[in-house]
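A protein record in our archive is deliberately plain, so that people and models can read it alike. The record that follows is passed on verbatim for readers who wish to inspect the format.
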Amino acid sequence: MPERRTTTPQKAPHLSALDVALTQFDAAADKLRLDDRWRALLRVPQRELRVQFPVVMDDGSVRMYTGYRIQHNLARGPAKGGIRYHPDVTRDEVCALAMWMTWKCAVVNIPYGGAKGGVAVDPKKLSTRELERLTRRYASEISIIIGPEQDIPAPDVGTDAQVMAWIMDTYSMQKGHAVPGVVTGKPPSLGGSLGRTQATGQGVAIATREAMKRQKKPLTGAKVVVQGCGNVGSYAARFLDALGCKVVGVSDSTAGLFNPKGLDVGSVLQFKEANNSLADYRGSAETVTNAELLELPCDVLVPAAMENQLTAANARRVKAKLVVEGANGPTTPEAEAILEDGGALVVPDVLANAGGVLVSYFEWVQDLQFHFWTLDEVNRRLEETMTRACAEVSARSERDKTNFRTAAYLLAIERVAEAIRLRGIYP
C-alpha cells in the first residue's frame, strides 16, 4: 500500500463563492432577457445581519465570534436556509449560499425564499458545553429576524440536530412557549421529521438515477466516487450503493480511499463514524488525496464537500461523464465549461442537493399542523418531488438547448421574478 497522504479539499482562493453565484445568475438572466429592475433586485440580498458576540469558555475566558444571517429574497415565502459552523465562514460565502437557496427552493417549487447563516468557528475545537453556549448566544442575536413565518434555519456544515434543538429552545424561551417550527432538522422527539437526516444524500441519489436515465446509461454497476464523508456524502454513498452502483472512492478532510473493484461502503462509513476520520482505515482500499480522488476513473463523481473543488486547474483531468453536485458551489464556471466540452453532464447543486430543503419543508408543514407523517409518506413525497423537478429541468434543457444548470436557473428565476412582478414594489 502506498504512503498515506492527507490533505484538505482543494479551494480556489481567487474565486469567491459569491463570484460563482453571480456569474451563474447573470448567464441565466441574460438568456431570459430579464428585466433590468428584477435583475438588480435579485443580484443582492434583501436583508443582512452581522453579529459579533461573546462566549464564555470552559476555563472562564471569553472569546468573541462573528456570525451572519442573510436573507436573499422573500418574494415566494419565508426565508429558508441552513446554519454553517466553519472557520472559513465569510459574509460573501453566506450571501452566495443564500442566493443558491432562493434558486433551489424555486427549482423544486416550494413556497420559500432563500437564506443562510453561519459562524466563523471550528466546532471540533469546542467542548459540548462551549458549543451549546455559542449556539444559544448566536440564536439570541439572530432571533430578531428568524421565526416560523419569517425565516426557518436548518443544519449545514458543522451543525446538526442537536444544534437545531438548542436554537429551538432558545427561541422558544424568548417566546414563552414551544415553537417547533422555528427550525427544521430537529430530533423527531422535538417535532423533527422522519427522514430528514438522510434527505440530502437521498436526493443526490435520486438525481443521479434520473441523470443516468437521461444519458441512457445503466445505474447498476456504475462506478461512483464521492468526495466528502459528512452527512450528504455518507448518505449519498449509502443510497447509491443500495441502487446497485459500485462506490469505488470516498474521502473526508483527512484522506481518500479507492478500490476499483468497489469499496465496502458499510465498513468504511462505520469506521468513519467510530473514528471521525478515514486516515487509518485498514480495509481493502488504496489511500489517495482529495485532489487525486476527484480525478479517479469513474462514471459518476459526487463532490459533496465544500465550494470550488472542481476548477480550471483540475477539470481536464476529471474522468467522470456525470458530475452530481452534492455540495453547494463545488464547480466553478470555468470548470463546468471544460467538463461539458469533454462530454460530461453536470447536475447542479440547486437541483441535486435539494432533497434536504424538501424534507425541511415537509417538517415545517408537519410542525405547523401538529400532525406528523410516517417515513414512507416522507420518502414518497421526496421521491415524487425530486423526480418531477429533475424531469422539468431536463425538459427545459432540451427545449432551450442549454445545460442543466442554466435550465434550472431559467426555471427558478422565472418563478421568483413572476412572484416579484405580481406582488409589485411597495409602496
User: Anything to note?
Assistant: The CA atoms of residues 201 and 232 lie 5 Å apart. The first helix runs from residue 17 to 32. Residues 1-13 have pLDDT under 50 and may be disordered.
